[in-house]
């Protein structure tokens, strides 16, 4: 897990990319009814805007609320095991992100079709579909993979919170 703001930003960039890419592929595949090269192309083409939106929501809204909830009600920093802390924080991040990004997907669908009347129905039906994929993917695949790659690229303690102050 990240130890400071800089590590947190780098970790969030990696995790958000992994989750948005996978969930984009998943949602396009559900919509098209198959997994094909066309699905991968469509998911990749929609990725940049979805990624920027997800990053902004994660960094400025969800992260603080999710960690606050997890550390207040589920785990105690420094007391709970690292595994329990990771599971609690990851789960608390997935729930609001699924709700927000499911709405994003519903709005994107309505923009493409030009019909806004089904936006609420699409959003509410997307939430459970996305949740059953996002939570296991986050806990079992994306989380461990991104944590492994993050610590390989940035061993603990190599990213400083503040630049060293030159002595006079």
From TrEMBL:
This is DUF2798 domain-containing protein. The keyword Cell cycle does not apply. The chain crosses the membrane at residues 9-29, 49-74, 86-107, 127-150. Pfam families: DUF2798 (PF11391). InterPro entries: DUF2798. The keyword Metal-binding does not apply. Keywords: Membrane, Transmembrane, Transmembrane helix.
């Amino acid at each position: 897990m990240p130890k400071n703001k800089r590590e947190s930003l780098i970790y969030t960039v990696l995790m958000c990319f992994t989750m948005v890419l996978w969930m984009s592929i998943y949602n396009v595949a559900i919509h098209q009814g198959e997994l094909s090269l066309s699905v991968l192309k469509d998911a990749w083409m929609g990725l940049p805007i979805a990624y920027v939106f997800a990053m902004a929501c994660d960094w400025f809204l969800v992260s603080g609320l999710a960690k606050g909830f997890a550390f207040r009600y589920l785990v105690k920093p420094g007391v709970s095991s690292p595994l329990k802390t990771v599971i609690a924080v990851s789960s608390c991040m997935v729930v609001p992100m699924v709700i927000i990004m499911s709405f994003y997907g519903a709005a994107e669908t309505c923009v493409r079709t030009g019909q806004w009347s089904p936006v609420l129905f699409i959003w509410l039906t997307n939430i459970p579909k996305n949740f059953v994929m996002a939570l296991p993917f986050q806990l079992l695949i994306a989380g461990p993979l991104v944590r492994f790659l993050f610590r390989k690229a940035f061993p603990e303690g190599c990213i400083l919170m503040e630049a060293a102050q030159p002595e006079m």
